[in-house]
């Protein structure tokens, strides 16, 4: 068991170093980035990705209690797209996709296979929807996730949503509207369950 732990630890060091070198060449990466397995990072020239200090990206299933279905995905669809992940935040197999902007605060936890996106991906009118070029401005709105937010496994955060500081999104929820700070939401669509008690 100790040998297995050492092998996994060595693998994390190697993937962290590789990610720092590769991502740091293209984007703004804070100190102490930790990657268990390599994330999938895809962007259009001109797009921006910023990772704060000590961000953790879990792309290897053995590195988290629940496991993940796929590596972390960070994808920018347009030259104007921005993804920002604040310091000390951790993502496990999450998919973050931006046509405009997805901003995640500090000390956030995104559970296994969470999806966050700021666009509908396809035009709304049926004519040309399949093959037409997306009108990104018409079908996209920024997403903002505050500090200290916990988003449970396989939750989906859709375009135009703001999640307030300290909120909790229950596993499997579909967030289609703003979430107040220090609240717990659950369901599809996600609705308020209760407010968190002050400390």
Q: Main beta sheet, described?
A: 8 strands, mixed
Q: Which sequence of strands runs across the widest sheet?
A: 2-5-8-11-14-17-19-20
Overall shape = globular
What share of residues are in beta strands? 25-35%
Describe this structure in words.
The chain has two helices and 20 strands. It is an alpha/beta fold and 199 residues long. The strands form three sheets. The protein has an eight-stranded mixed sheet. Strands 1-4-7-10-13-16 form a six-stranded parallel sheet, with helices on one face. Strand 19 (183-186) and strand 20 form a beta hairpin. It is globular.
In terms of topology, how is this protein built?
Elements (H helix, E strand, L loop, with lengths): L1 H25 L1 E2 L4 E3 L3 E3 L5 E4 L4 E3 L14 E4 L5 E4 L4 E3 L2 E4 L2 E4 L4 E2 L4 E3 L18 H4 L3 E3 L4 E2 L4 E2 L4 E2 L4 E2 L4 E2 L7 E4 L4 E5 L4
Parallel strand pairs: 1-4, 2-5, 3-6, 4-7, 5-8, 6-9, 7-10, 8-11, 9-12, 10-13, 11-14, 12-15, 13-16, 14-17, 15-18, 17-19
Antiparallel strand pairs: 19-20
Observed structural traits:
20 strands, 199 residues, 15% helix, single chain, alpha/beta, six-stranded parallel β-sheet
Write a concise synopsis of the structure shown.
The protein is α/β, with parallel strands linked by helices and 199 residues long. The protein contains two helices and 20 strands.
């Amino acid at each position: 068991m100790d040998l297995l732990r050492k092998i996994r630890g060595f693998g994390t060091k190697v993937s962290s170093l590789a990610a720092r070198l590769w991502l740091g060449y293209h984007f703004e990466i804070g100190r102490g980035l930790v990657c268990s397995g390599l994330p999938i990072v895809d962007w259009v020239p001109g797009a921006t990705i910023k990772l704060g200090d000590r961000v953790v990206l879990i792309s290897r299933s053995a590195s988290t209690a629940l496991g993940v279905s796929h590596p972390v995905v960070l994808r920018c669809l347009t030259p104007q797209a921005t993804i920002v992940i604040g310091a000390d935040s951790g993502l496990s197999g999450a998919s973050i996709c931006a046509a405009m902007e997805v901003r995640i605060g500090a000390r956030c936890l995104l559970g296994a296979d969470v999806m966050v996106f700021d666009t509908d991906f396809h035009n709304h009118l049926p004519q040309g929807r399949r093959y037409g070029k997306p009108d990104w401005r018409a079908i996209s709105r920024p997403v903002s996730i505050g500090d200290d937010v916990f988003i449970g496994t396989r939750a989906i955060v859709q375009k135009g949503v703001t999640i307030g500081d300290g909120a909790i999104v229950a596993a499997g929820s579909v967030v289609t509207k703003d979430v107040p700070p220090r609240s717990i939401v659950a369901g599809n669509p996600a609705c308020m369950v209760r407010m968190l008690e002050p400390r």
